[in-house]
Amino acid sequence: MRFFEIILLLILSLLSIFWKPLARRIQSQWILYALGVILILQLLLEGYRWQLLPAYFLSLVLALRIQFTAAAPTFRWSVLYVLRGIGLLVVLVVVWALPAVLPVFDLPEPGGAYEVGTDTVYVITKRDEAITDDPKDTRRMVLKIWYPADSIAADIKRDTYLDPVSRAGFATKYGLPASTLNYLDYVKTYAYPKVAVAQGSFPVLLFSHGYGSKATGYYALLSEVASQGYIVINMNHTYESLGSAFPDGEAAYFNYAYQQQIAADQMQTITPIQEAFEGKLDFEQRHPIVRDAVQEYFENDIQNRWVVDMQSILDLLPEWNTEGFLKGSMRLDQLGVFGHSVGGGAAGKLALTDDRIKAGANLDGIQWGTKIDTVFQKPFLYLSADWPAEHEDLNSHIYNKKSTDYYYEPKILTTGHPNFMDIPFMIPVASLTGSGSIDPELAMEITTKLVAGFFDKHLKNEESVNIEALKTKYELLELEVFKGDRAE
Known about the structure:
One of its GO terms (molecular function) is 1-alkyl-2-acetylglycerophosphocholine esterase activity. With 488 residues, the protein is α/β, with parallel strands linked by helices.
């Protein structure tokens, strides 16, 4: 929470309990003046947000009581007195809980040598749109580009946290009005729209988001990576992210009907996996069961579709490097890919099948499909959250055959699946989000050190980078490194 929010809530809490004893020592109007000043300062300097409505209402009730109720002691034990006390406690819990659970949060400040610029690109492909019912629809995407920028003038406005369509899609997912997320306007980002790309040229990374997530809900991760000297193309897989805002004003949201259609009858695929892990089968006995399932599960088709999305963008990069705001800024011989969750598996698929990609990373995603039968021919990083022991570790089978080059397998202890997104900052209650008990900033710091270090070593070819040294720096990091025949 912000400074004046905390001051306001503290004063309201104290006045709710102690205003009568205080009024016997200080004139009531001075208490009211103090409360009014704090309330005005909070509204003027930090701004109204709906999460503080209970606090504003309590301010009004307290002001009326202080103004019109005698300050003489009226204490006596009674059922009514106890009920009033319980009611006050409930009110104070609500007053504190709403702004604490949905705070105006702080994003980590990028630590790289560059400022971070952003821009959006609208792409119309020649492919049919598989998700909608209209046979005339073609696949369209709106991408966000994160890139290194030189020093930023003081009057340049920062990027707003999440566009309105992504906010609306997020609110719809949880059955809330879109206006619920208007308070995100107060979140300070470290990205600047449409500023010039920094002088020089930079490696290019494609990033693929989680299924049914906010495509641009990775500000902490992508701002940091871009600040380290990378152009990051933030994919937004239309109808499978929470929202895409097209230039003509049209919005495309997550298609829940399509999800239900493709996910129907999938338990018959998942059940053998669950039974294999719950039983007493060893790794070798489970392996053929997992092998069959990972190629039949519906997320395999999603990842295949997303791979084609990313290949469509790879096809456009030579043109973008000759005209437009990225002209001359991209090193097209240094292309990488990474992603989170389903997008992490899609990133692995692209790294496996497309020779233009020189290195890839998967942040806690299952890579469905044929990887279980083959080997990466390039450096790869698979970063895992700290899943419980009963979790079905499919990637232990899928990535059993690792890489002919470097293969990194880190795990960040006490993390959960959402710790690679902004969610732990946005809703800092682990029990609500599934995040781990780790401090969100520490989790993000370790993640970005791993991701940027991996690409520094294997795209930028910086020989001095020692990824294994991160094990000694962070107690919560486990890391294994496997070296294939091609690894030096």
